[in-house]
Specification:
Structural class: alpha/beta
Distance between the termini: 75 Å
Largest sheet: 11 strands, mixed
Mean pLDDT: 97
Low-confidence stretches: none
Strand content: 5-15%
Number of domains: 2
CATH class of the largest domain: Alpha Beta
CATH topology of the largest domain: Amidase signature (AS) enzymes
Helix content: 25-40%
CATH architecture of the largest domain: Alpha-Beta Complex
Number of strands: 13
Radius of gyration: 23 Å
Number of helices: 15
CATH superfamily of the largest domain: Amidase signature (AS) domain
Length: 510
């Protein structure tokens, strides 16, 4: 006899449901009639329950890996270390790749930085994981990320802070904190990161590596824990430009499972690396400098780096994009309200799209409701804002912000019609000290969100943007961000490779 998973509600349960929906005048007789009419509906649900889930096949043998001992994890960058070997040959043969812990690797634990998800083991490989393995790469393990990825600093993960390899006790940036630290420390040459407000580019800047946020939809997000559909990105974080371009070649292109993709295929990005920067036109965005929290020294390093492009034959001039000053304000309702509704109330995946739902992750994540006090202060702060605005203002400002994204995108596109690339500091500062374990809430939140103003707008507008190291201040790396037109990643790589080959960024100091 088949056990029914979806049970017909009792009359008391129907009263509760009706009350939750605001149906104040339904009599018990009415509710019983509704229950009778819903019998066929519940039968349909049980038919769906008995069907197999439509999940991609998991290939390549693997073990769960292991939690590294502190002496084997000096920067706190690794959540799980392991070794999943891919195909015998391919463009990534001999390359070890670290996977940010918001990305599903079947059979390997995943907690996405969150105590409320700890113990979850995915039953599916994300498309990006499968593509790395198919290309001959080896998965080296899962790297620590911030609590559900809601911090630009590296101090909110339940597993503990991630330390900057350039200076212990300083932030590695977030939310892809462990990926950046593992690459910067030389543990692996490549890692995957995620970016909804700058979470690839921010840690890349703090740690002195190369971090590419590709055009929205170029890389499939399938099998990665979502935050908000319109700002979810994943991409490569590497020690060199060549490895970055190589990894993007492997990752990019439609997988047929992610409706965020618009059909753009992968390109031979490495072919752009030897072209040099001569003839390119770069606009240095004036509004990207001089934020209230900006360090004059790091701004100065980026201006020096822009001038060095002139020596490579590049036309460089200042450009004003006043809308850039409003970009992070436009991003905020999208991120705060969108994430609260989709990632938290919607158990990660939400509704209204036909991509791959990782139902095991959805079920495991839903447990946060009974353990909400464990959430990080940076996530609590976001949820307080998001829930207040969606319940008190009807989601009006989320909708208006999404409308304003078109104007913001047009402002950048207008500049990109005159320039091949836009240039600005990735972040307004170098790595800050990690907050103490007993730091007050305001310090924890400030360190999480103070770095966003230049990176966040491009998550909304979907332009590709890359952070590349361009110098140091007091021994800490400074990142320069290059922004290109939609799907023009090869132009970014062309300029980044020319800069990388033309000078030693560690020798540019303030």
């Amino acid at each position: 006899m088949t056990t029914l998973t979806v049970k017909t509600p009792t009359l008391d349960e129907m009263r509760d449901v009706a009350s939750e929906l605001g149906f104040a005048n339904m009599s018990d007789a009415d509710l019983l009639l509704h229950l009778k009419m819903l019998e066929g509906g519940f039968q349909a649900y049980n038919l769906v329950d008995q069907m197999p889930d439509e999940l991609p096949e998991v290939r390549y043998p693997r073990t769960p890996g292991r939690r590294p001992a502190p002496e084997d994890n000096p920067h706190g960058a690794w959540y799980v270390k392991g070794s999943i070997k891919g195909a015998a040959d391919g463009p990534l043969k001999g390359k070890a790749v670290a996977i940010k812990d918001n990305i599903c690797v079947a059979g390997m634990p995943m907690m996405n930085g969150a105590s409320t998800l700890e113990g979850y083991v995915p039953d599916v490989d994300a498309t990006v994981v499968t593509r790395i393995l198919d290309a001959g790469g080896t998965i080296a393990g899962k790297t620590v990320c911030e609590y559900f990825c809601f911090s630009g600093g590296s101090h909110t993960s339940s597993s503990g802070p991630v330390h900057n390899p350039h200076r212990h006790g300083y932030s590695a940036g977030g939310s892809s904190s462990g990926s950046a630290a593992a690459v910067a420390a030389g543990d692996v040459p490549m890692a995957l990161g995620g970016d909804q407000g700058g979470s690839i580019r921010m840690p890349a800047s703090f740690c002195g590596i190369y971090g590419m946020k590709p055009t929205h939809g170029l890389v499939p997000y399938t099998g990665i824990m979502p935050i908000e559909l319109t700002i979810d990105h994943t991409g490569p974080m590497t020690a060199t430009v060549a490895d970055n371009a190589l990894l993007l070649e492997v990752l990019a292109g439609p997988d047929g499972l992610d409706p965020r993709q618009y059909g753009a295929a992968s390109k031979p990005y490495r072919e752009a690396l030897g072209k040099g920067a001569a003839g390119l036109r770069i606009g240095v965005v004036k509004e990207g400098f001089g934020w209230p929290q900006s360090m004059a020294a790091s701004d100065g390093i980026v201006r020096q780096a822009a001038e060095r492009f002139r020596g490579l034959g590049t036309a460089v001039e200042d450009v004003s994009i006043p809308m850039h000053l409003l970009g992070s304000a436009i991003w905020l309702p999208v991120a705060a309200e969108g994430a609260t509704v989709q990632m938290m109330h919607g158990n990660g995946f939400g509704f209204n799209w036909q991509g791959l739902y990782v139902t095991s992750l959805l079920d495991a994540h839903s447990a946060w409701r009974t353990r909400a006090d464990e959430l990080s202060d940076s996530l609590k702060n976001t949820m307080l804002l998001g829930h207040y605005m969606t319940t008190r203002y009807r989601g009006h400002y989320y909708a208006k912000a999404q409308n304003l994204v078109r104007r913001l995108r047009a402002a950048y596109d207008d500049a990109l019609a005159r320039y091949d690339l836009l240039l600005m500091p990735t972040l307004p500062m170098t790595a800050s000290k990690l907050p103490a374990p007993d730091a007050p809430v305001d310090e924890v939140i400030t360190r999480a969100f103070e770095v966003l103003p230049n990176t966040a707008p491009f998550d909304c507008t979907h332009h590709p943007a890359m952070s590349l190291p361009c110098g140091t201040v007091d021994g800490l790396p400074v990142g320069m961000m290059l922004v290109g037109a939609m799907f023009a990643e090869e132009t970014i790589y062309q300029a980044a490779a020319a800069f990388e080959g033309g000078m030693d960024w560690k020798g540019i100091m303030a």
